[in-house]
Amino acid sequence: MIDPPSLVDQYCHGVLRTELGLGTFEAQLARTEGPPAPGTTLFDTQTGFAVRRWCPPLLGLEPHCPPARYLARRRELGTVEAGRRLLRGSGITAYLVDTGLPDDLTDPDELARAGQAEAHEIVRLEQLAEQVADTSGTVESFLANLAESVHGAAAHAVAFTSVAGLRHGLALAPEPPEAGEVRGAAGRWLAARVAGDRLTDPVLLRHLLWIAVASGLPLQLHAGLGAPGARVDRTDPVLLTDFVRATAGLGTDLVLLHGYPYHRHAAHLAGVFPHVYADCGAALVRTGARAATVLAEVLELAPFGKILFSSGARGLPELHVVGAHLFREALARVLGGWVSEGAWSLDDARRVATMIASGNAARVYGLS
Questions:
Q1: Boundaries of each Amidohydrolase-related domain copy (predicted)?
Q2: What's the pLDDT score for residue 230?
């Protein structure tokens, strides 16, 4: 039996506090730019089928029950109770939570209480910069306050995360921008900015990344398929190679998130550079019944001490459940197959499973 005793979800978000109908549930189930096409449902996806497989038993229903019945049971229990049952049934023992989304999501402490687990904060750099811009009147005060805010966040967070790849693309110049460049870009952004506008300027995005690198905390970089509208050809992690090379030896680990469909590229970078790690979790949620194939492809290229589990869940506690169960099942199928073929010993399979499930994250993020 290959079943790691604990799971550290090294990248996720909180869950929604509101009651959900069919339409709002489906909107959270799959990231699309609108509702499903007429006559179709987003439950008819790999993620939707995985939800119907793993979540109904946690709410007292049979696996694969119809979506309408499942959502009726969810409403009967109420958002809080359903969320509590789902999160506690996931087997996740620690959550690392990106708090940088505008949605009404539970914070790390709430997620920890609901799931009877530990929780730690990941600070999103772009949101931090936008908050600083809202309270800074001049370029000089903005830049000074930004550096101070990143330094302050590093005192309580376990990592920084950046969505520069989703907002601009990963083909950013690798070196830190010159001070004059940064002042000029900050001046243009502040002068044209309306409160709430997102940061997309490539110079300021690079400046943020390098401030984070200087902090020494692990830096998570979003790659692969992202939010609706993101250009997937601009988020291939191989585009990060120059930045990865420039940050080598500086003492800051880089974690490549959501590399799918370029998960092999992310795994390759993790294999080549000592300070690079590859996240395998969100790809498994997206691929559902094909998760074992994707995990095996990551294991082909990345050293086993450089691979991290995450659910990538956002909004729905069901996605935490699906991420955890698909990961455990894929791990058992892949490693168990190698054991049965005689390629691996059972002891080695269990040791590697524990590394990927929790041990690597504990080491990278300094968790107890």
A1: 182-367
A2: 52
Residue of 47, 113, 81, 22 lying closest to 314 (CA atoms): 47
What ranges in the chain are assigned the alpha helix state H? Answer: 22-29, 46-54, 67-77, 79-88, 108-115, 125-134, 139-154, 164-167, 179-192, 202-215, 241-247, 263-272, 281-287, 291-301, 317-340, 346-354, 360-365
pLDDT in tens, 269-316: 999 999 999 998 778 888 888 999 999 999 999 999 999 999 999 999
The pLDDT of 127-139, averaged and rounded, is: 93
**Spatial distance between the Cα atoms of 21 and 45, rounded to a whole number of angstroms:** 18
91: left (phi over 0), alpha (psi -120 to 50) or beta: left
Q: 3-state DSSP call for residue 159?
A: strand
Our CA angle for 6, 95, 327, nearest 5°, is 50
**Residue-averaged pLDDT of the chain:** 93
CB 170 within 8 A of CB 236: yes
Q: What are 256's two structure tokens? A: 């490549």
Buried b or exposed e, range 15-39, using 16+ CB within 10 angstroms: bbeeebeeeebbbbbebeeeebeee
Mean pLDDT of the 31-36 span? 79
In CATH, what is the architecture of 7-365? Alpha-Beta Barrel (3.20)
CA distance 85 to 45: 24
pLDDT tens, residue by residue, 206-230 = 999 999 999 999 999 998 765 554 5
Q: How many of the other CB atoms lie within 10 Å of CB of 266? A: 33
**What type of residue sits at position 191?**
A
DSSP string across 112-142: HHHHTSEEEEEEEHHHHHHHHHHT--SHHHH
* N- to C-terminal Cα separation, the chain: 26
d(CA 352, CA 195): 47
Task: State both tokens at 245.
Answer: 């090379």
Query: Tokens 């291939």 correspond to what residue?
Result: 236
Within the chain, what is the greatest distance between any pair of CA atoms? 66
Q: Which two tokens stand for residue 227?
A: 């939010």
**Cβ atoms of residues 271 and 301 within 8 Å:** yes
